[in-house]
Amino acid sequence: MHIKQLSGTNHIWFAIDTKNTPMHVMMVSIYDPSTVESGKIALDSVKRYMSSMVSGLPLCQKLQPSPIKPDFPFWVEDRNFNIDNHVQQVSFRGSSTKRNMMNLFERIAEQPLDQARPLWQMTLVTGLGRIPGLPKDAFALVSKLHHSQFDGTSGMKLQARLHSASPDFAWSPAGTSREPGRDVPGKMLLQAIGNRYRWTNMSTRVAASMMPGLVKGAAKRILSRSKVKEGPEVPRTRFSNSIQTNERVYDSITWPLAEIKSIKNKVEGATVNDATLAIFAGAVRKYMEHHGELPETSLVIAMPRSEHKESNTESSGNQASAMRAAIGSDIVDPLDRLRFIRDNTRQAKEKATSRSGSPLDVVDVVPTYTLGKVFKAINYFKLVEKIPVPFSGMVLTNVPGPRVPLYFMGAKMLSNYGLGFLIDGMGLLCTVTSYCDELYLGVQSTPELLPDIEFFFECVADSYGECINA
């Protein structure tokens, strides 16, 4: 049996996993089954197909504590793996509207994963053919994964493995095949003992690698004696507050990718991500202005940044940090805002690249069990509402998807949405994904922080129109 110990980078997501802030991500894909020979997809066939696929993917692994504490747990094969615990079906009922479909996706997102089992779940949602614009017998697959095991990059790789580039579908229903768990405790004990020596050396190496950057930063602050703060000033928003519920609100909008490219082409050097961020910033400006909450200075957004390295051969796990940039929410003209965003995101990338040492290295030597208690204390005492914030409670993540049509068991994928997670101080998440020639912008929050998500998307549509017509 293969065992693998979690790194601190991956275990941190368990340390901050709470009832109100579960650390899972979701992919929601909608399909047209008319390309399937039978014209439909049944739950039993999905279970058989997934059973035949899991042995070659990291989907049979569950957590097992280390025999030496404190130490990170291990991924081990679940000898009692049962596909029935991971693949389920729900039927779409009620009014045949997109809003009602999104409500169903929200309810699925609110349910945590069972940490005693492999950390994934697939929900087959049938009955979507009643929604205007979707084909007869349309269905969705809602794939839920824990962020400790999959980030955006590895999640897309998993999705690609489960799909094909052709509706011609054939597979061998061989079922799962796993080695018996021989001497797993002994292997874990040996690795845990080795970690004691490894952590001592790593602590010294990390400290040495980060010291030049720390010294340089301290010297710069001492010598400058300037009243100007380094980096953008950060206004607080309603989204900078604590997450006090596990309930979620979510919606999305779809645009032709060619139109997003036409927006970015209006400003030399701008990217598709810059154009999308400019649309989102305009929507936030309109929304907060409507509620009398728009700060005089620009809001600051956080954006995940991939930390995948060529020297790192891991195909799963979370390997990302974050950078931040002002979004020009105080700028009225959409093209001036796009220019501002182009310059600020460029500077943020250069700043992130030039840092000495990675924060991810620190997490690997800091006891994340202790960090987990700190996060829980922050949540309990609502400390995030009383301390300075590094960004304005908003995050935008962009994970490019496949540019060619994909098929699941012969059914053609029509659209591909992404949902993430919320934490204290990060109450508004914008997820941007793409598929073929379309771009999808999704927004996720809680009912307390975003009680009028329909109005927010009116602001998104208005901002998009302004950018197109500028």
UniProtKB/TrEMBL annotation:
Residue ranges constituting the O-acyltransferase WSD1-like N-terminal domain according to the UniProt record: 7-275
Domain O-acyltransferase WSD1 C-terminal span(s) in chain numbering: 317-465
Oxidoreductase recorded as keyword: no
Keyword vocabulary terms for this entry: Acyltransferase, Glycerol metabolism, Lipid biosynthesis, Lipid metabolism, Transferase
EC code(s) of this entry: 2.3.1.20
A molecular function GO annotation: diacylglycerol O-acyltransferase activity
Listed InterPro entries: Acyl_transf_WS/DGAT (IPR014292), O-acyltransferase_WSD1-like (IPR045034), O-acyltransferase_WSD1_C (IPR009721), O-acyltransferase_WSD1_N (IPR004255)
Pathway: Lipid metabolism; Glycerolipid metabolism; triacylglycerol biosynthesis
GO cellular component terms given for this protein: plasma membrane
Reactions that this protein is recorded to catalyse: an acyl-CoA + a 1,2-diacyl-sn-glycerol = a triacyl-sn-glycerol + CoA
Top class in the EC scheme: transferase
Lipid biosynthesis listed as a keyword: yes
Membership in a protein family: Belongs to the long-chain O-acyltransferase family.
Protein name (database record): diacylglycerol O-acyltransferase
Taxonomic classification: Bacteria, Pseudomonadati, Pseudomonadota, Gammaproteobacteria, Cellvibrionales
